[in-house]
Amino acid sequence: MTVTIANRIGQAALVLLLAFTASFLLLQALPGDAILIKYQNPEMGLSPEQIAEIRIRYGADAPIWAQYFNTLWNFLSGSFGYSVQAGVPVNTLLATNLPPTLKLASLGLFFALLLAGLVAFAATLAPFTWLRNALQSVPSLMISVPVFWLGIMLIQLFSFRLRLVPVINPSEFQALILPVATLAVPIAAPLAQILIRSLDEIETQPFVGVARAKGASRSFVLWHHVLRNALLPVLTIAGVLFGEILAGAVVTETVFGINGLGRITEQAVSNQDSAVLQAIVVLAALGFVLINLLVDLVTPLIDPRLNRPIGAAA
Amino acid sequence: MTTFDLFNARDTTPRLRLVQLQPTLILAWAIMALAIAWAIAPSLFTPHSGTVGIAGNQLKAPDALHWLGTDEIGRDVLARIIYGSINSLSGALVAVSVGLAGGTALGLIAGSLGGRVDAFVMRMVDVLLSVPGLLLQLSIIIILGFGTVNVAAAVGATTIAGFARLMRAEVVRVRRTDYVEAAFGSGGRFWAVLGRHILPNALGTVIAYAALQFGSAILAISTLGFLGYGTPPPTPEWGLLISEGRKYLTTAWWLTTFPGLAVILVVLAANRISQSLQRTP
Is the ipTM above a cut-off of 0.90? Predict the structure, then answer.
């Protein structure tokens, strides 16, 4: 068992190291680096010698392997380099821009869970076959809607037509309603899909038949027996969900003009500010890997059956 | 984004489905055919121009002449959508081709050779999967630069991992079948068996996945177009149309609504077609 865990942690670390290396190499291949873009601007009137000096200050003239180990060491000690465009450490940028994104993401996830549960239960319990079939195709509809378009439609409908949510000087709560609703849809879609499927699967299990035969109603069995078992598959897509949330937040923030991770990502791409993008990419990979690792370690505790077969041998 | 569709594709009414008429599937093919026809011969479907506006015709609400209204410089919105079809569809086609070629090759190599090669390839696939699609696309765009082809290539690169995983799983499954054992047993050489038996049998699922990825590629391309990294204006691209229409949200709802509906319908159609491809073995 301990061997498996150590093995799994080692794999996670390897994937992270590879992700870091790949992003480092890719961003090194950039045709023009951010320092040149910023300081070569004729308005600054800097001579080539002065630019070369700035490059030395940023450490951009060192051989590539030295830069690699330098950057790696800095990342490991929690320092993500300098944003050339903004002229501040990436850590400062993250410190100011991460909290709004985290707030948006956690609220989005909460409402996505509610929405997915609602859709899944409705699709399982609805009275008529045609209604059930219709409800079961709701998640694929939600997946096909462009997130940015959904946000724009919500603004149009609720702010401009119905005038329910003010656009000018909204309160903090009002400003969050539409972004959270927008973000909840793409997160809820895969959740609802996997929930519907797993509810369906569990419902055919013998113990459900026994509970029903004992006289429990369908919804009682669903709540007390089926749901607990059906939630396990949801955990397996936690890592993917994390990615969905992050990507969804980037787009949502752009649509609603929220200052957050999305804003700095967009600016980093526009200005070729590679240090910022690399930090965000590596942090995203870290989140994904950690979540998957956690899920792998926790699922055997929830479902002991998973421990028995190959677990120890692998 | 839509990876789950494939694995969750559910067979609700067994057997009977094959003989039954499937209205939603016919509708899906009809939408796809129309979108492809728009891309090939846009001028057959609209008398208006996709890029040149008519003065004095600005921001007209939908009417008998301009079915979906006109934009801020008097261009017909339906014409813009029709002429924009080629950008979205060809972009998605390039993206899926990149993913299909790259991913299938990687998966085939990993699944057939096994051992260290397999471990190495799959570890690289894990790395690709560990970064959210949008961030991976942005990292590639920051290197390649903005533009239609670059965006398509970036979207394609993010689908490689999914194709590789699926292909590898299929190859591993097919390798264990009796007929492959028999082919090896009767003296078939590795590459011959691979090309003649393993590849054709593994490809079915992969094609269904490709159709699914076609839909999500259209979605991803429109997102990147909306963010302003794709086709530059005045070329009509569905994501760009929505982004341009945003400035007139208060007065002209038709500018943003209809291009979005076009994206949704084509993506839904692609997903439905993928589902049907999966069902028929």
Answer: no
